[in-house]
Amino acid sequence: MQKKVLALHDLSGFGRSSLVPIIAVLSAAGQQCVPLPTAVFSTHTAIEGWVTTDLTGAMHQTIEQYDGLGLRFEAVYAGFLGSADQIDCVREAATRLKAAGGIALIDPVMGDNGRVYATYTAEMCMRMRELCAIADVITPNTTEAAILLDRNPADRPGNADEAWEWMQALRRRYGTQVVMTGLDFEQGHIGAGYLAEDCSGFSLHRRVEQYYPGTGDLFAAVMLGALLNGEKMSAACDRAGEFVKDCIAYTAAQHTDPAYGVQFEKLLGKLTGSPAEVTTG
Fold it and tell me: Which of 25, 133, 140, 168 lies closest to 79, judged by CA?
């Protein structure tokens, strides 16, 4: 039986972030991705001049319709949110629409590179903790992990022992499985640490010296698709990290504007089991 994922994220038309890669990745993994857009953006917010339309008013009505249809989702997956009211909608969706034994995945998108995003208020950062407390899995980067732990957003784990302490602290506070991304304590490598029900450890990959927006969405979507296909967290994180690394390496070789995101499209065959169409290096 095909599994369904309810994805509550913004839809950014240009820039390869949020729902654009998420829908593609989950579809390649064999799941049905049902998008519930929180807002529509012309581009992601790192590209100057963006315009947006807020869709908060439609979110509750959509949840009502899906509940009335008896739809239940093997995963409810939320990321970038535009307001505190949308946090209430995510909680409602996870409560009413998640199937028994399903996964509530919260990617607490609040900041990166040591800074909180300009669109995120102190209230939203505080209320994001409510969602983490009802999640089955959270996927903060180191900036977001610091916020969730009341630490300086510019702080980051300097070694494996510190990363392990951070993950344990998140696990104790929120009672959820933890995947912390953006760990770069090992020279020449970057990746994630995971503290799950059945395994724990680090999944590090060769670092490609280029930054692109949207790679966190790629990582979480690949990881979720693998979990829904029965893989353990360790294997899911390995698969996600390797895919993101390959996408970054391929895109860097094309010399495109980093703000335009990673060219993941030609590498989706890696997620379907089809032969890769390109050499990633």
Answer: 140
Instruction: Tell me the two tokens of residue 202.
Output: 């680090």
Average pLDDT for 88-101: 96
Q: In the 8-state DSSP scheme, what is residue 259?
A: G
Answer CATH for 4-272 from 3.50.50.60, 3.30.70.1350, 3.60.15.10, 3.40.1190.20: 3.40.1190.20
Q: How many CB atoms lie within 10 A of CB 14?
A: 15
Which tokens in the block code for residue 1?
Answer: 């039986």
**Which H or E run contains 6?**
strand 4-8
DSSP three-state, residue 123: helix
pLDDT one-digit tens code per residue, 43-76: 998 899 999 999 999 999 999 999 999 999 999 9
pLDDT at 279 over 80: no
Question: How much is the mean pLDDT over the chain?
Answer: 94
Place of tokens 């993950």: 167
Q: What is the mean pLDDT of residues 112-122?
A: 87
DSSP code of residue 57: H
Distance CA 151, CA 145 (A): 8
pLDDT at 34 over 70: yes
